[in-house]
Amino acid sequence: MVLLGALVNGITVIVGTLLGRLLRRIPESMKETVMNGIGLAIVVLGIQMGFKSENFLIVILSLVIGAVIGELITLEDKFTSAGQWLENRIGSNEPGSISQGFITASLVFVVGAMGILGALDSGIKGNHDILYTKAIMDGFIAIILTTTLGVGVLFSAIPILVYEGSIAMLATQITRFVPEALLGNCISELTATGGIMIAAIGLNLLGITKIKVANLLPGIIIAVLLVTVLFAFQQ
């Protein structure tokens, strides 16, 4: 089943969120320390991913152009509005928690190499091992994020299913149309561009910055376009 890995990933986030709700009485000092630890780990993960680039100019251009597009279409505000709509629909008594939890968790779980590589592996080879590993990691992260950011983390399961599921479905046909070299280059630059965003998320969790990471997301698409154009010129 092509979508099995994505489904398991989404389910573990939901389960992690529910467990996080049960453990919400964790002392604030412990939550803060654990969140700082996660924030530091996410920063390091993002930096490691950033070094995967084979042409860092593509990463820089992707982030700059993506930021301009994101600001023009106010992508961060749309994420926030979606979270606030969910909050109003379910009548949460935790003001702001759903929008913040939804945005932060969605970006942490969706933007990254494991989701892309795992979904491609699911679609091309029918191998879900990468997504299973990611699911375990995301489940534990969901527990901690929920104790701090609230039930909004649960709704991040939706973009996980859509994102990973779409890639897995497309991957069943992608090798018929995309050369292996181009696919490899796209993954490298997507990983690096996403890594910078992941690092920004970590800095935000640590309270060091207030970067509108959602407004950088168009950079993911720009990275693919730039790699494709460069590949075409080199042929």
Descriptive report:
There is one protein chain. It is built from ten helices and no strands. It has 235 residues and is mostly helical. The model has no long low-confidence stretch (mean pLDDT 85).
What Rg is obtained from the alpha carbons, in whole angstroms? 18 Å
Quick check: average pLDDT?
85
Strand fraction equals under 5%
- Estimate the global geometry from the Cα principal axes: globular
Number of helices: 10
Major sheet: none
Order of helices and strands: HHHHHHHHHH
- End-to-end span in angstroms? 36 Å
Q: Helix amount, in percent?
A: over 70%
Q: In terms of topology, how is this protein built?
A:
Elements: H1 4-22, H2 28-50, H3 56-72, H4 75-90, H5 97-110, H6 113-125, H7 129-149, H8 157-177, H9 180-205, H10 218-234
Helix pairs in contact: 1-7, 1-8, 2-7, 2-9, 3-9, 3-10, 4-5, 5-7, 6-7, 6-8, 9-10
